[in-house]
Amino acid sequence: MKRVFPTIALVLCLTLMVGSAVLMGRSYWLSDHVFPAGSQGWPNVWIVSGGGSLSLQFFARRKTSRTQTEWVAKSLAGRSRPFYLPDDCRYHLLGFGFDPDRGQPRVVVPWWFVFALTALYPAWRLSRWSIRHRRRRRGECVHCGYDLRASSGAACPECGLEGE
Question: What residue ranges do the domains of the chain occupy?
């Protein structure tokens, strides 16, 4: 039971990693726009993917007659230069962008950063697994690396971990 949460987290991170890689590749051919059609007192948010970047643009609050939010998704084909690239923002560096102007703040994050962020936990788990596997194969304690080939007990004399 104690390994359920790490396994679920690993599967979730791997799914997000593959999804961000697919969306990163797709963003160079299509630009996807997701936005609420109307909301009661909520800020309107546009989520735009295109040109290798993920952009969030917040519009001023407005009151509408609709009481529930409907989300609209559109894909626009074409290679025209989109308006949400980080170079168009007032502050931009390494694919990141921030533009606080016009009462419509915009944040741009490159897809490679989303991919790298979701790949951190699986990479850490893979490195830990390879270290444990290598130590087990060499006859060492999987926790501290102490050489167990000459010891007769089931527990490691260095750290006290029971052998697996």
Answer: 4-116
